[in-house]
Amino acid sequence: MADDVMTPQTSPENADPTDQAIGDDANPTTTIEDYVPGEYTSFDVSDAPFAEFSEDAKNILRELVILAARTDVASRRFEVEQCWEARLFERGYQHLLPRKGGGWSLPGEGSKWGPLATADSSALYSTNIYGRDRDIIVAALAREVPETVFFPQDANNVADVQAAEAANQYKNIYEKNNNLRERLSEIAQYFYTDDRVILYTRGVADAQKFGRDENGQPSIQEITSVHGKLEGKVPTAVQYQSEMHFAQLYNEIDVSIAKCRYPWVAREIRPGSCGIGEIELDKIARVNTKLALLGSYVTGDAMMRDVTEQYTWVRPSMYFDECVPEDIRQEFLEQCPDGMLIVYAGQTLCFARNESMDNKLVVTHALPGIGQNRRALGTNNISVQKRLNAYLDLMDAFHRRTIPRRIYDMDAFDINALQAQDNEPGNSTPVLRQPGVPLNELMALEPTPQPQPSLPEFCQWYFEALPQSLVGTVPSLFGAPTNTDTVGGIQTQRDQALERQGTPWNNAKVAINQACKHAVMAAAARPSIIKASLPESTIQIDPNVLKGSIVIYAEYDQSFPESWRERELRITEIAAQAPQNPFYAALLSVPANMRLIADNLRMADLHIPGEDSVKKQLIELDLLKTSAPIPNPTFMQAQDQLARIQTGMAFHRLSGLPMPDGAEQMFTQAQQLVGNMPQELPSIEPAPDESENHGVEGQTCFDWMNSEEGIKFKNGTPEQRAGYQNVYLHWQTHMELKKKFAPQPDAPAPHVSIPFDKLDPNAQSQALARAGLKSSPDALAQKKTTDTQHEIAKRVVPKTIPESINIHKITRGKANAQQPPTGSPAGTPRA
């Protein structure tokens, strides 16, 4: 690791004499200032060294930080209390009373039970629809991590093309180290309660978390953290990040962590805040929402070890403020021309360095709006939640407190005895009868107040329909039907609900893509090779390659990506229709698609045929495309043999000697052999037997050659073209071996021609069925018998009957004799 990245610049004259180690001169004891940042806790690194400012310039740094903290005091106070209230509502603290000086309290704080709800203080119970809808919104927005794709700034610039390719490899490392689904969930949560979100991306050295590099220094990884309104401050009146002249991030850490993170000023760091009154309320709000406590419960003991870590970015335009003298301005411009990061731990200046906020921060919002204090996704639910709590408390009071009071005649009943006895069914109560007074007049029930008949329905409306219409958490957002019985109607309503969340989804997508670009820029400043082992492959990237100019575009999509359930249904549909749909069948036959199918069917442990071969070939592809083919030694030997034959034949011609027998034929064969033999071989040759899946590996090479990267290599630099040729030869060999070992089709059965009438009835029936005709074997047997009898009659009868007698007439006569003529009595011979 480079010294200017990790080692702060300290001057000997600032050293505290009490910090000198105790020990002999040969083996001095290590002091706190000697520890490397990142060794025992995380430290944000940069390739920019710490600025070496004069003492007057350091004092001006403090003025700039105070100037930023005191900007827009009134609007900042308003947005802090709005956000504070929303976060407490999400936790279920909803019966809030404003406190003098800022903050909130609950009814009954001075009672025996404090702010906790009991049976006697039921008004403190809340029915948390605000938190319910927050869960739905977060689940909807975080259902899928957006895809990130890098492109070269100039497609004709080799450095830009290589940088984009390396960045698309590096993004897999970034996604692994940052758990982007969790970051996306944090963004969605802040969108619901705060609205404004700041993403901070930087290189972090942390030996405890990432280990050490090959030089023994703390390893560096690029990390993105997500911050809400209470943790970040920007100018309120501006519209865009480019218009912000400063940005601030705040975080409370333990004093021991602060001393370990900034060891060169560890002796000066003390617990406490930044000492700026205008942002003290911000700290209280941050701490009590993290501790799930109200403002009045954040006492000194809760923060006695806390140190406020304050990051302030300023643009160079702030150097021209009237508080900055001309000579100090020149110091700032010379050492920090891109802008400045100023870091304080409590009231101790830790360091300042050249750093542009646009290369580290992304400021985004859930919804469009004016200024930087905009409406959050859950803002509309705050008033609904307050009213619902009031209505439900009223309903509860009617149910619990409107039991009618009984009224007794004091002369007829012993009140003390009634109160002392139980109320078991069947008990007897003695009554002193009053002369002339009916018993039913000696006691009565007071009138019972009745709630408004519409109150239950009104509560139900506030519980479901109203918040759904205001926030967009309709049941169809998570798959339940609303006012429709058709599957198409449910899907339409769900799509409409998702489209309403399309704006925050796209804003989150753009923010994550931009953070990924910031991570690439930070990785380009690393002092050593970037290495990472991923499930699919091992990645190794030279940081210098990432220094080209790249761009990233987040495709705008008003709708949401498909959920796991939707993809599962779609893939199940494809599998069911594949036998009738050739296109679907082709999709399922591609080995590269099988892992995606198994993952989306939640069958990740299923072994996919050919998947291991795909992985093996992808590893080989990384080696093939970065090297050139090798000369074919057999081709070179054949060339030498052909040259020797040519030389011998030329010698015989010149010398007049007779040509040896078969020389011409030998020469022709050698020519054909050389012409049909490849001049080069791939640097990695496939196995010449069936120990490899030649079809799958060849298809993997084919897919790469026709991919965007393959086309770039085919038409790229000489090295890339050589790599493409290497892959091509590897693919060609796999295809030849696949054809060689393909199973030979069975020889066709010999054709035998048998006359139809020679077949038995069963065979005749089968032959007719193949021709599309139906006839039973019994019917065919009967026909064959009849035909045989006719054939016998033709041959035998004419020989036994005189020629003058016609056999056909006799046959007809017999047939007619069996049927009586029409109109004649049965048995009467016909004339």
How would you describe what is shown here?
- With 831 residues, this protein is an alpha+beta fold.
- Among the domains are: 42-110 and 125-380, no CATH class; 611-740, no CATH class.
- 45% of the residues lie in helices and 10% in strands.
- It has 28 helices and 19 strands.
- A 5-stranded antiparallel sheet has the order 7-8-9-10-11. Strands 1, 5, 6 and 12 form a 4-stranded antiparallel sheet that branches.
- It is flat and about 150 Å long.
- Residues 1-27 and 804-831 have low confidence and may be disordered.
Summarize this, please?
With 831 residues, the protein is of the alpha+beta class.
Low-confidence stretches: 1-27, 804-831
Question: Structural class of the helices, strands and pairings?
Answer: alpha+beta
**Count of strand segments:** 19
- What's the alpha carbon Rg, rounded to whole Å? 45 Å
Write the layout of secondary structure elements.
Layout: H1 3-6, E1 43-45, H2 55-69, H3 73-91, E2 97-98, E3 104-105, H4 129-141, E4 150-152, H5 158-178, H6 180-193, E5 197-205, H7 207-210, E6 220-227, E7 232-233, E8 246-254, H8 255-261, H9 280-291, E9 306-314, H10 326-335, E10 340-345, E11 348-354, E12 361-364, H11 379-401, E13 406-408, H12 415-420, E14 443-445, H13 455-463, H14 465-471, H15 487-500, H16 502-523, E15 530-533, E16 538-541, E17 550-552, H17 564-577, H18 582-589, H19 591-600, H20 611-624, E18 630-631, H21 633-655, H22 663-676, E19 680-681, H23 694-705, H24 708-714, H25 718-740, H26 761-770, H27 777-800, H28 807-818
